[in-house]
């Protein structure tokens, strides 16, 4: 075991493991500091800047690949949003909680 990963400023509530498009292992983490961070678990270094935008604690993460092969990371927060992050471009799409029932 190496040193603890440092970067978050509060509790971590969610982790997701995935493989980068280049084939290397990656770890995503999120929590009370409202950020999502990507890590190289072998070196313990953070990859790029944190994903920001949530205004509440982040409690869930999921990684998936589109039919076209684009890798995405979904983060769900107490701010009642789910953010879908394109891991290639680091752009996001925000899904907000519906206030009225959908029919």
Q: Distance between termini?
A: 51 Å
Low-confidence stretches: none
Strand arrangement in the largest pleated sheet: 1-2-3-4
Largest sheet: 4 strands, antiparallel
Instruction: Please state the structural category.
Output: mainly beta
CA radius of gyration is 14 Å
Percentage of β-strand residues: over 45%
How many helices in DSSP terms? 0
Global outline = flat
The counted number of beta strands is 8
Helix-residue proportion: under 10%
Whole-number mean pLDDT: 88
Succession of helices and strands: EEEEEEEE
Overview of the molecule:
The chain is mainly beta. 0% of the residues lie in helices and 47% in strands. It has a 4-stranded antiparallel sheet with strand order 1-2-3-4, with no helix packed on it. Strands 5-6-7-8 form a 4-stranded antiparallel sheet, with no helix packed on it. A hairpin with a 4-residue loop joins strand 3 (36-40) and strand 4. The protein is flat and about 45 Å long. It starts with 11 loop residues before the first strand and ends in a 7-residue tail after the last strand. The mean pLDDT is 88.
